[in-house]
Amino acid sequence: MATIVSRSALADHLSLIAIPLEGPSLQRTPGLLWPEGQVRTPMTAAFAAIVRRVAKSMAEN
């Protein structure tokens, strides 16, 4: 079995090895997840708003 993870994910798994990838750069699309139908608390909604604002700012720069 193979998967793509960041090198830092291997820090606690000494039996795994990293094979560097060559070629095009990899791009990740982050997301915020919560269970469908679950009402978000005001704190969760505020956190999501902050993450969106920071991500938008980073994308514009």
From TrEMBL:
The lineage of its organism: Bacteria, Pseudomonadati, Pseudomonadota, Betaproteobacteria, Burkholderiales. SUPFAM superfamilies: Periplasmic binding protein-like II (SSF53850). It comes from the Bacteria. This is LysR substrate binding domain-containing protein.
